[in-house]
């Protein structure tokens, strides 16, 4: 069976990797006033962080259902099935858009998959699915593999300014106000598909150290892991962090990724995070 793999722009998979694995990407939108940009196509992460320095914070929107329908119908010409992997349904309607579109197309079986997370953690699922699909594995086997990976996936991140999350409705006002007053740098994570505080920590340095400790709890048990350092316009800091982590945990293969325009709108510049999963 020939299976296509689809994802959305918030997986932040580099274009060369999308091309290498024949992954199809549907962009979310960034809206500055009346100007609409397709994430990762019309606006890249570096451009986004420059734009927000001089403009009001943008809004974001999910892809229209028709965009999914059009893509799935095109794929039906060459594929038997589609696995469509998207950011958590708890923070976006993108996954539900794929579900709706899947019932509107004929000639191809569509398997929408809720990653329950976002950014390159979602991207690692996509890359694994694409590798399995390239070997001709059945969609059901690929989905079972993703569920297996999900059991060992961990992701934690911290933000410099909680107001972005609060304004975007991704964190309650009370939590944002308390965090701002106490200058707390809370560790956040996904739980039941939504973003919630994991621990409240007073400084950025301590928050990042806590992430390292959490990684160590898994990595020191043995086995090989994939890890991704994710930054919001803090490329140098991410590189330095990787060098430190590679010395501590040689059994973890580290990549560096970024919080792109859509997720960056809700987290703000300066956010840092890390995800990892067992190979």
TrEMBL record:
A Pfam family reported for this protein in Swiss-Prot or TrEMBL: DegV
Q: Name one GO molecular function term.
A: lipid binding
Recorded hits in SUPFAM superfamilies, A to Z, give: DAK1/DegV-like
Residue stretches in coiled coil: none
Q: Which domain of life is it from?
A: Bacteria
> Keywords for this entry?
Lipid-binding
Protein name stated in the entry: DegV family protein
Q: Which organism is it from?
A: Neobacillus massiliamazoniensis
